[in-house]
Amino acid sequence: MKILVIEDERKTASYLKKGLSESGFTVDVINDGDEALRAATWFSYDLVILDIMLPSRDGWSVLREMRRLAIDTPVLCVTAMGSIKDRVKGLDLGADDYVVKPFAVSELLARVRSILRRGPNRSPEDVRVADLEIDASAHRVSRAGIRLDLTAKEFQLLLLLGRRPGEVFSRTVIAEQVWDMNFDSGTNVIDVHIRRLRSKVDDPFDNKLIHTVRGLGYVLEDRTKKVEGNVASYA
Q: How far is Cα 99 from Cα 114, in angstroms, rounded to an integer?
């Protein structure tokens, strides 16, 4: 598999290339935003590892333009900009994951493998799971053609789950991404919002999409396509 590393720090770029190459990946390294966008547009890669602070064009701009051009190559942002706000911005622009510097190469490789197993995402502005449709830019949700009236937090929660259908989100991750806070095991705010979301998204319909995975968290998926033999414990 071929990976494009977009990183202007020579030491970090060398570190990334060495770790990825030793794990069997073919790696191209580019240190300029404009040049990186041209490469991502003209050549085929299985994954782009993208720094944010770049010369000529920053990583946000590269990512935004890639998605505007319908380039759905998975993108892993690697940057020192580690605030919740920055991570959410990256995900909203269409990144598949976010790693904050400094990082261990073992963690990065685990995230790379996870992204490659999932494959490319659809456009962040258009999420569809079964008959559920989410328009992120218009903040509009419908199911079976029926418009759903969600609060701002319900919409954020549904969008988080909908962008990764089939992926289980822990309460900790949900708290960080939707509420910008550390999860307090003594509060039931997430469970309450999931319950309210289900009452609008699932209760009026036969095919339930929001599921609890006991001991782990919540997942949004179409169980009518569930593969036989899944041994996870669901509710």
A: 13
Q: How far is residue 125 CA from its own chain's centroid?
A: 13
Please say whether the beta carbons of 179 and 189 come within 8 A.
yes
Measured distance CA(103)–CA(184) in Å, rounded: 26
pLDDT in tens, 19-68: 999 888 999 999 999 999 999 888 889 999 999 888 888 999 999 888 88
Reduced to 3 states, what is the DSSP secondary structure of residue 75? Answer: strand
Closest CA to 41 of 77, 7, 4, 10: 4
Q: How far apart are CA 176 and CA 172, in angstroms?
A: 6
Question: What are the φ/ψ torsions at residue 134 (nearest 5 degrees)?
Answer: -125, 120
Sheet holding 47-50, edge to edge: 26-30, 2-6, 47-50, 75-79, 97-100
